[in-house]
């Protein structure tokens, strides 16, 4: 599909228009200069005075025409960037409308292509906008459907029940710790994860660096009297290191971090069941780790084999029971919709198996369609469900969780994929993960330690976000962790000093 865009000179339109086009067409190229052959031409007229007026005419190669127009009051803004944002929204509104009319498809999330839709509603709630007005705005300005607005409201309400002081946690931080090793690498993995076998040297050096980061960060937090809200060990698979190494790591956490007893939640991803042993569960219990994740992804054996997860369905179930019997009472499980070879019947099987275990929370991911397509291209034996079937499976998850008393408590969307899908975390009453809420809603700083760990520094007053990423591969990390720690401490000093001087 080739779309020629006319009437928009500013290059800043390119990316947002491409992202919206990607919601409709799997392979799509948009151009701002005439091409030899275009499937669609969309001609915009934009005028900005006290109002922003945008109209667009879509013409296809057969001469079919769609037309849309949108008018919106221009809100005075402090910067050119903010002005442009308003114009961009108006253009996106018209663009989405003509594409929806032409394709007959409805984008349930409207013009939103970002990954955190619930943030929009939180922003309105913080401003104390009446609910009906906030919903109307989501519908009129962003073209979000009622179904998704209801979901957003349900999630936002749930989050504020779980974390009533969500809007007041900007002076605390959460910590993410990245352990970049796994027993083997899964076929669809995009995380920093290295097969652990034969890498003991690299693991030792990495852990040395991580202990250093934890000590330095802990010192800073203590000196500056900054509390920790949650800690999350992810990766990779944090349980792929040995029980002794885990023990030393958690001991370090207790020694270095401030007031660990009062951290609201500590999670360790034990994602791969093949890494879970009674010894490791003992260590988790010893250090009062509240929450673990055991991720089946699917309960169909061929699928697990096809995606390179070297464990069996039985192993997932056995390890779940083992963890339960050893006192783990907050277990999350992840399922993935759209794995190669999987359709409605495989997913129904996964839900049936889940029913036998009833984990405290269930996160339902949708495999990125594009990535899945790549997998299909690379290995012909993989078949990936189409968009309609994927939606069916998402609806099954929604119904199943509702019937079994789970509530959606966080969601994020994947960028740049066909089908405009979302990932949703569901939890039984009072079992929602606070860290997941913190990472999604961006109300406080998250400090990333370890390999591939992304830090997100959020200014306590302005909410301005500064991203900072640790290196992804262990070798670079081992060579430079001191420098990365220093850089993060510098950012933290600036962030929290400013706050003191303004107070
Ligand atoms: S277990 Fe997770 S992090 Fe590890 S290779 Fe598989 S998808 Fe990647």
TrEMBL record:
PROSITE patterns: RADICAL_SAM (PS51918). Gene3D superfamilies: tm_1862 like domain. Residues 167-407 form the Radical SAM core domain. It holds the Pfam family Radical_SAM. It comes from the Bacteria. InterPro entries: Coproporphyrinogen-III_oxidase, Elp3/MiaA/NifB-like_rSAM, HemZ, rSAM, rSAM_horseshoe, rSAM_sf. This is Coproporphyrinogen III oxidase.
């Amino acid at each position: 599909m080739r779309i020629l865009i006319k009437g928009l000179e500013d290059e800043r339109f390119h990316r947002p228009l491409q992202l919206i086009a990607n919601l409709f067409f799997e392979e799509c190229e948009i151009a701002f200069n005439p091409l030899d052959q275009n499937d669609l031409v969309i001609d915009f007229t934009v005028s900005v005075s006290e109002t922003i007026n945008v109209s667009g005419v879509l013409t296809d190669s057969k001469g079919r025409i769609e037309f849309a127009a949108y008018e919106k009051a221009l809100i005075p803004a402090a910067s050119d960037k903010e002005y442009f944002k308003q114009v961009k929204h108006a253009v996106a509104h018209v663009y989405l409308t003509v594409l929806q009319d032409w394709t007959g498809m409805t984008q349930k999330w409207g013009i939103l292509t970002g990954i955190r839709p619930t943030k929009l509603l939180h922003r309105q709630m913080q401003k104390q906008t009446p609910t009906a007005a906030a919903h109307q705005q989501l519908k009129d300005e962003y073209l979000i459907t009622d179904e998704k607005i209801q979901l957003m409201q349900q999630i936002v309400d749930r989050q504020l029940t779980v974390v009533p002081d969500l809007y007041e946690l900007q002076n605390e931080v959460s910590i993410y710790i990245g352990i970049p090793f796994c027993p083997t690498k899964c076929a669809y993995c995009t995380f920093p994860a290295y097969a652990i076998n034969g890498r003991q040297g690299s693991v030792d050096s990495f852990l040395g660096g991580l202990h250093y980061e934890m000590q330095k960060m802990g010192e800073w937090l203590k000196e500056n009297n900054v509390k920790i809200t949650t800690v999350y060990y992810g990766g990779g698979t944090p349980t792929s290191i040995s029980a002794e190494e885990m023990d030393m790591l958690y001991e370090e956490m207790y020694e270095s971090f401030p007031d660990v007893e009062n951290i609201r939640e500590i999670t360790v991803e034990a994602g791969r069941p093949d890494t879970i042993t009674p010894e490791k569960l003992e260590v988790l219990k010893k250090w009062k780790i509240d929450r673990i994740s055991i991720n089946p992804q699917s309960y169909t054996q061929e699928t697990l084999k096809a995606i390179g997860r070297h464990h069996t369905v039985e192993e997932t179930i056995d390890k779940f029971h083992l963890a339960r019997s050893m006192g783990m009472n907050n277990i999350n499980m992840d399922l993935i919709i759209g794995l190669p070879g999987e359709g409605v019947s495989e997913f129904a099987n996964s839900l049936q198996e889940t029913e036998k275990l009833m984990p405290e929370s269930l996160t339902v991911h949708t495999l990125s369609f594009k990535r899945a397509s790549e997998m299909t291209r690379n290995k012909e034996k993989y078949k990936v469900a189409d968009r309609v079937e994927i939606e069916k499976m998402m609806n099954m998850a929604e119904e199943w969780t509702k019937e079994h008393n789970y509530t959606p408590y966080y969601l994020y969307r994947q960028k740049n994929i066909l089908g405009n899908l979302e990932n949703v975390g569901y939890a039984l009453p009072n079992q929602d993960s606070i860290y997941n809420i913190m990472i999604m809603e961006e109300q406080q700083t998250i400090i990333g330690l370890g390999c591939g760990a992304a830090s997100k520094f959020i200014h306590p007053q302005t909410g301005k976000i500064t991203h900072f990423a640790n290196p992804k591969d262990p070798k670079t990390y081992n060579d430079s962790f001191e420098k990365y720690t220093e850089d993060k401490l510098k950012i933290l000093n600036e962030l929290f000093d400013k706050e003191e001087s303004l107070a």
